[in-house]
Amino acid sequence: MARRRYTIDEQRIAMFEQEGRGKGVGVDYKPWLTVKDVPSSGRSTRLQGIHTGRTHHLLSDIERSLFYCLDWEDSVADIREQFPLDRSATAQIAEACNIPHPRFPGVVTPMVMTTDFMVDAWVGGKMVQTAYAVKSGVDLDHPRTLEKLEIERLYWESKGVEWSIVTPAVLPTRLIRNIEWVHNFYRLDGVVEPHPGFYQDAGRRMRAQVSASSWLSLQQFCENMEVRLGLGGEEGLMLFRHLLATKSVLCDMESVVLSDPLITMASFRTLSGERQENRA
User: Which of 37, 63, 78, 81 is flagged as catalytic?
Assistant: First the structure.
């Protein structure tokens, strides 16, 4: 099947602006581009954010990997993907640098350039913004890509915002795989409970048994908890993933392999009750 042509003209730009794309923060932010707006080769993803609670539109494997890292970081307050840049500003930068401004083939309209991620995070007690451009190593071998990145770099420099290029080489593969293993279990909103508060109580009781079960494999522990807590099949593992995703149970996410069937409960720990309350 032929790929859908990816073109945005002045009419669509006006429509996007009317829809409020590129505006808002947190749960109210609307990305300039969604997975429906760009040609897909099967690599686009929609994920519900831990920090924002909204659906994030990620257009490549690399974007998804960086998103997992950002969404896992406690200091992060907001993640805004496909963040639009002001066209008048990027046009001025392109002209000053004698770089052709990006346009869609066959379209006179200058493209609205976007930054892959705009992130708000707490650093030293202050909220700091950082912009990220996500590229493969191969992308950086293309002169035209470097020209567009230079426009983006100068744009954020003029606004006093730190800007970085992220490639797969700098992303922690094991950490990302572990986050992916638990990320969708951060919220259990769609799971039907036998009665209100059932999983919250079961999770609290499961967490209390972690330190006393170091000799068990994770699979054995979850199966035992299913019997003790009256959980259905596979609900023990689901609930334990939820505890990991909410950081009620901790482990060294950069060294273990959570999907390893031989992993034991010795790899996991919990905070003291007081520290757990402070974390929440």
Answer: 63
